[in-house]
Design goal:
Layout: E1 10-17, E2 20-27, E3 30-38, E4 41-46, E5 51-54, H1 57-71
Antiparallel strand pairs: 1-2, 2-3, 3-4, 4-5
Length: 73
Amino acid sequence: MSKKDKNIEVAIEETTKNGNQVQQVLIGKNVVGEIENQENKYTAILTDGEEFNVHSFDEGIEVVLQQYHLHQG
């Protein structure tokens, strides 16, 4: 017997942090990470403060979601 797929809502909200534009990645109402863009350099920041340098905004989202899935529960 297979498990039924579970739909999870992922949202991206733009906000300002320390004078910089930051996109927050949310699952439900919980912030799971942020993507920061400075001079065409992207940084994925997790809620525990861990940072990953990435090449694009899309790669930043992938990293945040992978790390969340890896370390949840």
